[in-house]
Amino acid sequence: MIPLFSIDQVRNADRYAIEQLKIPSISLMENASLSVFNFIKEYYPSARNVGVICGRGNNGGDGFATARHLINDNHQVTIIYAGKESELNGDALLNYTVLKNLLKYYSTSKLKTFKSTKDIGELAKCDLIVDALLGTGTKGELREPYKSIIQHLNEINIPIVSIDLPSGLNLDKSSGSIIVNAELTVTLADYKTGLFYGEGYKYAGKVVKGSIGIGSEYFNKQAVTEYLIEPEDALVGLPNKDKNLHKYSNGKILVIAGSGSYPGAAALTTNSILKSGGGAVFLAYPKSVRSLVVPKMDEAILLPYEDRGMEILSTDTIREIKDRFDWADLISIGPGLGRADETIEAVEQILKKGTDKRFVIDADAIYAMSKFNLEKTDLRNKVLTPHHAEFSNLIGISNFELENDLMSYGRKFVREHKCTLVLKGAPSIIFTENGDSLINSVGNVGMAKFGTGDVLTGIISGLSAISPDFEKSIISAVYLHSLAADLLLEEYSEFGITPTLIMENLHNAIKFLRNSFIYSTWNS
Fold it and tell me: What's the pLDDT score for residue 239?
């Protein structure tokens, strides 16, 4: 796991450096700007004409210092300062003054004070733009001229490197309405949570870690609850399969899914369980949709229940699957069930009966939960896998409210209900019972299709049914699901990736993961 840090923790790193290590603050800014300069040289070696847009605070100071390093390296640099000289102070003012003096000897570079958005047009002639406009103090709606500046920057078809964060991003909640669309973000001191989900994930581009020159001792001592999932974590979560394993000791799983409206969801989930190693799998579905389900099925055993032609799950049908309910190690419920009142009542009864069982709860079963009293439902040993709209509906808030404080709502839910939450999205986030938030680090836009979530439900179910560690198997499933999609990009574009292709490529994802570490071990 890669630890991720809050804004306060990173700000306190500056205080630690100045007060404990006695490093002058100007040295911290110099180290930061050298990091940015070195990453520019590494990622954009052919960029000779660079634009730098600076604000009034320390982020702007980092920009002035970065511009100086670029000029000294024979780059042609256009610096635009969005403020008045009288508004600068401290280290930012010092770097501004040094830069002004330096420019007396470099006629091909220039420093301009922002007057209107026409000034941004000068940056359109550059090979690269460095964003040093706004820092970590950004909250609420942007004021002018920053709003217009960012809008114009985003209209210029030139790569942007952001210093510490894309300007306009509220790092605390990874939100914002107008944010610089960066291709590369050099985050200073250490990785910040807000860059890896929400609007940060959307706008930060590739994130690399820059140094302020204090080493890792401070961050190693910080309490951390938010992490980025690494490949090693997915490998650890794969359950071991003993040589004397048989189908009934390899995970007994009951899938309750499908309806007349959504028969395909049941098949995707069930087939994905088998592809992820489930040993004995039964699919319970309405008998009247048999002709729609059977052609899509692989090797699972079908358990059609009498639905009197209604094509849905109802309380009357629960008794038909009771034996398999008691037999199963894990129950996977929800994909394609539909939202009829009878189905909602049946889901409530099933969850109340299964207080001692592992459950994977998805899709329409989550919708059903929004209609009954969750306080009377025991969610221990259960993992819920909603997407953002399903989760906001479940907890009774708007999707806008959720997006603006996503991490807080996720943590609060698992704390209150003692369950695990896999919040599907770009990226997916796992909220664990012990209070950790784990952000998936792989995946691509080709996954944004109907059915992809049904495949994830199946993979979680297949790996979790046999694993002694529920949490580790969930981590592995979420990562492998996205890795399988990423590996498809070698052959397909993001337009051609489908849920079925992801499911069929799962074995390659597992092999790729295992072989990567075997190769690494052999060559270490």
Answer: 79
